[in-house]
């Protein structure tokens, strides 16, 4: 808050009296001292000297990027932080473009991966850079771009293909390869229509695709579909040519890696073309290079869980399809006194029981969060002030946890501290319902006091109901009445708790909590001979 106040004070934080300049690499290198420190992030240069004392990670951490391109370092530590908003008063200008780097960029383009402009590539992609002519044919009104005959020909092919593939008669590759931007493995898309529906089909050319892999957002005429393909995102981004209704359906044909998004037309008329391409349309982008996309969600309910932790329920917009995979988090964004503040949160289920009875519906619109309110914190008091019906922006999911870590799992150990319990909620739910090989789940839940324990009675009921689950509470600041386990995470606590059923049993230990807790836990787990593959730690 002190930093935000300083940025609003009208003080000249760059020393350039409001001017923006073009910065050469040579110039950037000169500003490498604490009291004169410039850093480049994604092609924009900031004077971070006034920010030094406010940086949560300390001055030395910032100095690691002094006088250089800090994009990679920034991405490693906190890619999600909204530096554009936090540092807007520190903006010196953008990096000067070197003509020579254009060649590198074109080389990159050949690999068909989009990387946002920055020192490395020197220029920002423009939309026209990323379209192959063939894709344009698919989107644009043919007669303006190509000959009418060709247009009719392609349209007929598409129609024929759509018809035949619906009948299961035509090999998939026949049309998708024609539309592919580059190479047979590049994802592609296609569209077809009936009187009332428009179907956009995405061919991922991967088999491990499911409903979690696709995120669709439609706002007015903008249609955006992100498909997660391994470490990349395949983006379809189109300004639709005609109006559609709010809701749509998404279907995944896992065996062939095909996704179908079915839009409902507002008017039953034939569309001549799907729409016009928008930024980064038909691109495969490494996930680490993509910005986070946010949509506005409405606060539906807020319920006390402990004295300082609440269960928030947010509703996705009707024209969004998004499912947060187990073990992943999202970012919530609020504007606090004019500065956009972003913090990560891990969605949970509405209760430990509800999902055991009723599985999540594919089009579930509600997303639940267990959030602890820190009275002196920056974000959570503001979140807590939201009224039912207010909006908060939510990003697409992120995280490194993969469901494949559960494969043939026999013993699952969960070490959670405070709100570090949040990723364990969906993990518990999944483990007890969907891992046939599972013998035992043990949760050790560390808190300061009994009053801090989230969902204590639900956990106890669940452990009573399902004999495979054991729950142990450990308190670091208990009252004299507490006769359970006490203290911080320690070798004594863990060696007693983490007993494998059999020497060779397939084991996973998940750990989440305050950073020192997690770091210490990982060290202790290694000392107890758990291998790297047997440990998953949750961090940002
Ligand atoms: P902050 O402003 O960060 O302050 C938190 C506390 O630290 C306050 O008591 C504050 O006074 C103190 N503090 C701040 N700065 C300093 C300082 N310089 N020196 C000393 N003390 C200081 N939290 C949840 O509740 N639920 C979740 O599901 C959840 N999921 C997460 C997922 C991930 C991947 C990560 C990394 C974190 C998650 N968190 C979760 C934590 C969450 O992101 C926030 O860190 C938390 O909500 C605090 O935010 P805040 O801005 O309100 O508090
Ligand atoms: P807290 O301060 O109430 O502490 C809970 C317990 O953590 C304590 O009782 C103690 O056993 C342990 N602990 C705390 N500090 C410790 C230390 N220095 N060394 C060893 N053990 C320690 O916890 P909280 O306020 O609920 O904070 C939860 C933390 O979990 C936050 O830092 C949050 O960012 C993190 N979190 C991370 C993720 C994630 O990465 N996916 C998800 C949720 C929460």
UniProtKB/TrEMBL annotation:
Localization, UniProt: Endoplasmic reticulum
Domain CS: start-end pairs: 184-275
Span of domain FAD-binding FR-type: 292-404
Catalysed transformations (reactions): 2 Fe(III)-[cytochrome b5] + NADH = 2 Fe(II)-[cytochrome b5] + NAD(+) + H(+)
GO BP terms, alphabetized: superoxide metabolic process
GO molecular-function terms, A-Z: cytochrome-b5 reductase activity, acting on NADH; heme binding; metal ion binding
Protein name (record): Cytochrome b5 reductase 4
Species name: Sapajus apella (Brown-capped capuchin)
């Amino acid at each position: 808050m002190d930093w935000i106040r300083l940025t609003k004070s009208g003080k000249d934080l760059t020393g350039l009296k409001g001017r923006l300049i073009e910065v050469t690499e040579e110039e950037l290198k000169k500003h490498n001292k604490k009291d004169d420190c410039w850093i480049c992030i994604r092609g924009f240069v900031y004077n971070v000297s006034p920010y030094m004392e406010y940086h949560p990670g300390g001055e030395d951490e910032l100095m690691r990027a002094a006088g250089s391109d800090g994009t990679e370092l920034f991405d490693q530590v906190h890619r999600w932080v909204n530096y554009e908003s936090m540092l807007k008063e520190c903006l010196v200008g953008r990096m000067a473009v070197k003509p020579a780097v254009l060649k590198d960029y074109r080389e990159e383009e050949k690999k068909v991966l989009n990387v946002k402009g920055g020192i490395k590539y020197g220029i920002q992609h423009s939309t026209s850079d990323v379209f192959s002519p063939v894709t344009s044919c698919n989107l644009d009104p043919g007669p303006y771009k190509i000959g009418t005959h060709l247009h009719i020909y392609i349209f007929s092919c598409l129609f024929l293909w759509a018809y035949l593939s619906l009948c299961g008669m035509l090999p998939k590759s026949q049309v998708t390869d024609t539309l592919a931007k580059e190479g047979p493995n590049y994802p592609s898309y296609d569209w077809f229509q009936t009187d009332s529906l428009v179907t956009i089909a995405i061919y991922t050319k991967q088999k491990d695709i499911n409903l979690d892999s696709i995120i669709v957002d439609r706002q007015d005429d903008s249609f955006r579909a992100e498909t997660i393909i391994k470490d990349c995102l395949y983006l379809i981004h189109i300004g639709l040519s005609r109006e559609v209704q709010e809701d749509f359906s998404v279907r995944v044909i896992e065996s062939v890696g095909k996704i179908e998004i079915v839009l409902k037309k507002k008017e039953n008329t034939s569309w001549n073309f799907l729409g016009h391409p928008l930024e980064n349309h038909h691109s495969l982008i490494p996930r680490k290079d993509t910005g986070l996309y946010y949509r506005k969600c409405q606060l539906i309910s807020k319920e006390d869980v402990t004295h300082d932790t609440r269960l928030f329920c947010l509703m996705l917009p009707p024209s969004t399809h998004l499912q947060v995979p187990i073990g992943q988090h999202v970012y919530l964004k609020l504007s606090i006194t004019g500065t956009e503040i972003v913090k990560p949160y891990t969605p949970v289920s509405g209760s430990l029981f509800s999902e055991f009875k009723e599985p999540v519906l594919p089009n579930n619109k509600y997303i639940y969060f267990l959030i602890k309110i820190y009275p002196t914190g920056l974000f959570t008091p503001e979140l807590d002030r939201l009224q039912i019906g207010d909006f908060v922006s939510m990003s697409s999911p992120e995280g490194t946890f993969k469901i494949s870590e559960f494969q043939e799992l026999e013993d699952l150990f969960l070490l959670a501290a405070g709100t570090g319990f949040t990723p364990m909620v969906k993990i518990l739910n999944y483990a007890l319902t969907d891992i046939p090989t599972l013998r035992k789940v043990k949760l050790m839940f560390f808190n300061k006091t009994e009053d801090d324990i989230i969902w204590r009675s639900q956990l106890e009921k669940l452990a009573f109901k399902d004999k495979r689950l054991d729950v142990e509470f450990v308190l670091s600041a208990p009252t004299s009445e507490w006769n359970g386990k006490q203290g911080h995470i320690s070798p004594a606590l863990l060696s007693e708790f983490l007993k494998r059923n059999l020497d060779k049993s397939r084991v996973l230990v998940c750990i989440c909590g305050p950073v020192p807790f997690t770091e210490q836990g990982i060290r202790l787990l290694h000392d107890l001979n758990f291998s790297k593959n047997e440990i998953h730690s949750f961090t940002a």
